[in-house]
Amino acid sequence: MKNKKLKILYIIPTLTFGGAERVLIYLSQNISKIHFNSELIVIGNNVSNGFDELGQNVTYLNSKRVIKSIPKLIKTIKQEKPDIVLGTLSHLNVILGVISILFPKIIFIGRQTSIAKVYNNIGKKKKSYWHSYFFNLFLNKLDYLICQSKDMSNDCVDLFNFKHSKIKVLHNPITDSFITKTKSPKTSEILNLITVGRLVEVKGHLRILKILSEIKVPFSYTIIGDGPLREEILSEAKNLNIDKKTNHIPYTNKVADYLSESDCFLQGSLSEGFPNALLESCAVGTPAIAFDVPGGTKEIVENGINGFLVKTENEFINHLNNLPDFDPKTVSDSVYKKFDKKIILNNYEEFFKEIVKRKEVAEKH
């Protein structure tokens, strides 16, 4: 491997705006160009591209569904001859598990994005035996899985029978260069509260609204994000008589500004892979109150340092009614010391080098 650049294909279904997409784009653009050649492969097209600048090393397969892209994926991998193929999102990871059988000399990695044990039981039909059997079978054909948190790692072992030795926990980086606010905007008059995320059941917006309807302090609540539960969430705000205190923004490219102007980030999620919006809130110096649920939340929130982890709605209400002044720099430093992009990029680079070296040694024996 001396003096040889490792070639990596990063594969993603679409470039709609989301955390998984942003992390993979960031990796493909910023990983060391001295040691790696990177190519981003998008299963779909660039019509729904939610990102402005992607660089030149992007190929669109123009397939409507991941499963229909298999012939194109095989052809692309055969042409590019990468050392590593890295995909993200569970359904694509399974397809890459299938394809990996054809390329034994290439290292195939899947990047998980959710706690499947929780996510699969929220508003979904139970998977059939055969669906689960083949899902597990082909996922296990991958050489490695990247998990964003310890809980996700344990989930993959328990649910998919994936070996601990084939799992690597790599957190998400703080990808943008956020400006930490100089002082807390908190006043005694009104609390400016915010939640950023898709409007889906697992994100727990409805229980946040219930909590807000019961707090004693005056507040203004901003929800940024869109999704299938939009009407239900807005309707519930009206039913709870807090709709005039609630502001919904489907999409904005100024999320950091809204986070910086807020007193506290509220996370009601039932489960999280690794909550990027919460991480970014802390990065700008805005503390968070979040439920202690499966996923990476507990690896970000430090009680009394950058917010609070709670187990009950009453705990959540109590913290909102008695929210202390947090020092923005302390809040920001608490996440940058662990999730700064230089730290996470280095962790990925070392992991890639290590597994290629491991494979070379194994092939010699």
From TrEMBL:
It comes from the Bacteria. Keywords: Membrane, Transmembrane, Transmembrane helix. The keyword DNA repair does not apply. Residues 190-314 form the Glycosyl transferase family domain. Pfam families: Glyco_transf_4, Glycos_transf_1. GO terms for molecular function: glycosyltransferase activity. SUPFAM superfamilies: UDP-Glycosyltransferase/glycogen phosphorylase. Residues 17-175 form the Glycosyltransferase subfamily 4-like N-terminal domain. The chain crosses the membrane at residues 84-103. It comes from Maribacter litoralis. This is Lipopolysaccharide biosynthesis.
